[in-house]
Specification:
The complex is a heterodimer of chains A (512) and B (158). Chain A has 512 residues and is an alpha/beta fold. Helix content of chain A is 40%, strand content 15%. Chain B has 2 domains: 61 residues; 82 residues, 3-Layer(aba) Sandwich (Glutaredoxin), CATH 3.40.30.10. Helices cover 48% and strands 13% of the residues of chain B. In chain B, a hairpin with a 2-residue loop joins β4 and β5. The radius of gyration of chain B is 18 Å and the shape is elongated. Classes of the chains: A alpha/beta (512), B alpha+beta (158). Chains A and B meet through α1, β12, β16 and α18 of A and α2, α4 and α5 of B.
Chain lengths: 512, 158
């Protein structure tokens, strides 16, 4: 009998040595004359335990981690293949509270299956959504997505069904589905995890989107910083084409949908949808003026759905289980689940998919385990580099789009980066301006020039120069950026800058 | 050193294979950089002609994107993440160490041509900060000592 051992192929796990561990397990098993089959699964998203090795047992998978090279021999000595006890033993994986307390809908398969196995995908309820969609007319598919209450998970939270409906009702010979996989927001990695660890769910979601709006061509615009995701997607695309889940005659229905991955080239602003389309057309990624909306005149001037990875990857379960099933999770107008990403200075960093409504404090302490350094958490930045910093007083805010908006903050793409008390928030504000200056596409003057002036200004403030004059000047500059920029890069850089200034004035040398 | 004639052939091969794709410019630039490590300035006229663009337009696109380079990089490209999550876990100290160890600043190549250093704004490895890459291999929770070990290992193999 062969023992089955799982070692993640996720790039985060690999960055901590998972490939070496897999090789060592094989070598050690051969030396001991034990028949072991290694399966490279996805990551469960508990990165403080990575590389986390799992063993299939009659009572379910049991986990060991974080495994270092020096632990491999002792794992065999402890008979880990029969769930033997070891200092790294974590018990039955599904019972680990961090996982057990989540509601994984979009991430249902992540960490369980072999990402690039179509058979595995099918064996775990994959392609059920597409099969249902093939029996429905386009308007009903759109209605199911509208009913689910799904809102764009990329950050803007625009209702997905309404966007699809506009494209459906705009007549054109050619329409497009674009997946925005330019996950440039620092502190976020849920898109990467989906693409590396369950690429078929994204492909299925895009195929359903194509059927829903009458688009026959899709593009995944992937950031070049994700080579592992690129490989996984291309392998999955090839398999999907071979087995008629993509192509000219999807599952014999006569419907067609072609899908291609296109690589970005290190421009953050190309995560903005109009800039992304310019880039796909082979141009500089300059932001376009809206209107016209991409849904009416998008890629190559045709009606185009542009959705984030997580939005599209949430579509298959909605079509499988129905809009109501998804809508039953969440609070207020934030329906369903949000895959949150715990990053920065936290003990238990990783992926937490939960229904909207959990408080930030529960997320940081119950899941995150508090700071990694053991020092008090001073602030968290939620929603990427353009998200506001929240101080401790705001940690009881529920994770809900509207509750965050009321605080002049954003949930964005669900990235949560924690900073301990050693962080100087003026330094962070200065970095925000610097980042905006580096990544500005240059179209809007406030963003192009204002960011550089803002960087200089915060530098002067940090040296204590003319605070009476410079602080109001910084606020005025932020006002210009907010109101004078076409897209979120210039328009939202003031969020981290002003929230740092408002909540932590002492770091800017200003008396609170 | 790649011979100029080989470079031209490679460039032409990439252009012929990709020029009919919709929005072909980025795929072509990627193709050339994948094959040669950079995009030689004298390939611009060929690209422009194939796509019916002006040379200025091709140059404009090349220079807009941080990833494309018009000069050959060092043998090994080191990227250090400068984004917030890595900052929260001490990337600033790591950056200083990396610059000192390699003897170069960002966007520079060492005099011996072994290393090129670039900043990167997020590798999506934020749960394992601070993160770096060396030639597309990503490393997480990198300490200064580990970085030195990695570079020592590479120097031995050079």
């Amino acid at each position: 009998m062969s023992f089955i051992v799982y070692v993640p192929s996720d790039s985060g796990a690999i960055s901590l040595g998972a490939n070496n561990i897999a090789d060592q397990l094989v070598t050690e098993a051969i030396q001991r004359n034990i028949d072991v089959t290694i399966i490279r699964n996805g990551s469960r998203g508990m990165y403080w335990l990575e590389p986390m090795v799992e063993v299939a047992t009659p009572t379910g998978r049991v986990a060991y981690g974080p495994v270092k090279s020096s632990d491999v021999s002792s794992l065999f000595e402890a008979d880990f293949l029969n769930a033997g006890d070891h200092s790294l033993a974590l018990g039955v994986t599904e019972e680990i509270p961090y996982l057990k307390n989540q509601q994984r809908l979009t991430f249902a398969r992540v960490g369980i299956t072999n990402p690039i196995s179509l058979d595995d995908y099918l064996a775990h309820e994959g392609y059920q959504g597409l099969k249902n969609a093939l029996t429905m007319n386009p308007a009903d598919i759109v209605a199911a997505v509208t009913d689910s209450g799904l809102r764009g998970r990329g950050g803007a939270a625009f209702p997905t069904g309404i966007k699809w409906n506009t494209v459906l009702n705009t007549p054109a010979e050619q329409k497009y589905i674009i997946c925005n996989a330019d996950e440039g927001d620092s502190g976020t990695f849920s898109d990467r995890m989906i693409m590396e660890n369950d690429p078929f769910v994204l492909i299925e979601g895009m195929t359903i989107a194509g059927l829903a709006v009458g688009a026959t061509q899709g593009y995944i615009y992937l950031r070049v910083e994700y080579p592992h995701a690129h490989r996984a997607l291309n392998t999955a695309l090839q398999l999907a084409n071979q087995h008629n889940y993509l192509g000219d005659n999807i599952l014999g229905s006569g419907q067609q949908f072609q899908l291609e991955v296109r690589l970005g080239a290190g421009a953050y602003v190309c995560g903005e949808e109009t800039s992304l389309m310019e880039s796909l057309e082979g141009k500089r990624g300059l932001v376009r003026f809206k209107p016209p909306l991409p849904a009416i005149s998008g890629l190559f001037g045709k009606p185009t759905v542009v959705n984030n990875v997580i939005s599209l990857a949430s579509v298959p379960i909605i079509l499988d289980k129905g809009g109501e099933f998804y809508r039953d999770y969440g609070m207020g107008r934030s329906r369903g689940t949000l895959p949150l990403q715990l990053a920065g200075n936290l003990k238990h960093t990783g992926l937490v998919e939960v229904a909207f409504g959990l408080s930030l404090r529960e997320l940081l302490y119950d899941f995150g385990g508090g700071s990694a350094t053991g020092k008090p958490i001073k602030a968290v930045q939620v929603g990427g580099p353009l998200g506001a910093f929240l101080p401790e007083e705001q940690f009881d805010t529920p994770l809900d789009y509207e509750a965050f908006a009321a605080l002049w903050a954003v949930l964005g793409h669900g990235g949560v980066v924690a900073f301990d008390e050693t962080t100087n928030m003026a330094t962070m504000a200065k970095y925000s301006m610097e980042f905006c200056a580096i990544e500005s596409c240059g179209k809007c003057t406030p963003c192009r020039i204002g960011s550089t002036r803002g960087h200089e200004l915060i530098d002067s403030i940090m040296q204590g120069q003319d605070l009476d004059k410079n602080i109001p000047l910084l606020r005025s500059l932020c006002d210009t950026l907010l109101n004078g920029s076409l897209c979120a890069l210039g328009g939202m850089t003031p969020y981290p800058v002003l929230s740092a200034l408002n909540h932590f004035p002492e770091d800017f040398g200003v008396k609170p | 050193m790649t011979q100029p004639s080989t470079i031209q052939t490679t460039v032409q091969d990439v252009i012929s294979a990709l020029k009919d794709k919709p929005g072909a410019l980025l795929p072509i630039l990627h193709g050339i950089q994948d094959a040669l490590g950079y995009i030689p300035s004298d390939s611009v006229p060929s690209i422009a002609q194939a796509l019916n663009l002006s040379r200025a337009e091709v140059h404009g696109v090349m220079s807009f994107y941080h990833y494309f380079r018009s000069t050959p990089p060092g043998q090994h490209i080191v990227q250090v993440c400068r984004a917030e999550s890595c900052q929260a876990m001490g990337s600033e100290a790591l950056e200083q160490h990396v610059k000192t160890r390699l003897g170069i600043d960002y966007h520079e190549t060492s005099a011996d041509g072994k290393f090129t250093l670039e900043p990167v704004y997020c590798l999506g490895n934020c749960a394992c900060s601070p993160a770096i890459t060396i030639n597309n291999d990503v490393y997480g929770r990198v300490t200064s000592a580990e970085f030195t070990n990695l570079i020592d290992g590479l120097e031995k193999s050079l």
